[in-house]
Design goal:
5 helices, alpha+beta, 217 residues
């Protein structure tokens, strides 16, 4: 029944992002209170780096550095002020927008939009037109781009490969049983593997049809 007061002290360069485990009330300056139960109470404090706004991105995860780099470079932001959505699937509009921003958000030379599903003035319109005119991707049809269609692993490595000018990999041996020789994504997969951009799902499979998450992209 007593009110307990505790102050969380982060190390230099860190901040208190969240306190859980009891019905705590923040009273400012990283200080919290809660009413003691008639049982053991365990509180957990989430400390994040000061430059990391995302509660779902922390230093134990493989995508931590990549997400913060992309945020700092203006390539992407979160799905909200404090969430990145690393497990959300990435669609075609998002992937081409990431690439477009990484290239400096250049204005497309061809402003004629052939796609009925790409609205004028949307956040991805210029990115789509730029990606198409630079041969990074095409529409699903002559008049549709499919901005909401989820990208798979084969598509993402192909977009990246084309964005880099479609270089020829020196590695010719394909160890993946699910990457067919001569397929449209075989060379991009070998290039991505050779350059440390991605690895296979296993030693012998790449999983080209696997849906890509925001963290992976």
């Amino acid at each position: 029944g007593q009110t307990v007061t505790l102050t969380c002290v982060p190390d230099a360069g860190y901040r208190v992002a969240r306190v859980t485990g009891a019905k705590v009330t923040g009273i400012g300056n990283d200080t919290y209170t809660f009413v003691m139960d008639n049982a053991a109470v365990e509180l957990k404090v989430l400390f994040l780096r000061e430059n990391n706004p995302f509660l779902d991105v922390n230093e134990t995860q493989f995508f931590y550095d990549s997400v913060l780099w992309a945020m700092e470079e203006g390539i992407t932001s979160g799905i909200s002020a404090n969430a990145f959505g690393p497990l959300d699937h990435c669609n075609r509009a998002q992937v081409v927008t990431f690439l477009w921003r990484a290239a400096g958000s250049p204005a497309p030379k061809n402003v004629k939009n052939p796609f009925t599903d790409v609205a004028a003035g949307s956040w991805y319109t210029d990115a789509v037109l730029w990606a198409v005119e630079n041969g990074i991707t095409n529409g699903l049809t002559a008049t549709t781009f499919g901005p909401a269609a989820v990208c798979n692993r084969a598509q993402v490595v192909t977009f990246l490969h084309r964005a880099e000018g479609s270089p020829t990999p020196t590695q010719k041996e394909n160890a993946f049983t699910d990457v067919q020789a001569g397929s449209w994504y075989e060379v991009p997969v070998l290039w991505a593997l050779e350059n440390g951009i991605t690895t296979g799902a296993t030693a012998t499979t790449f999983n080209p049809a696997g849906q890509c998450q925001r963290a992976q992209v």
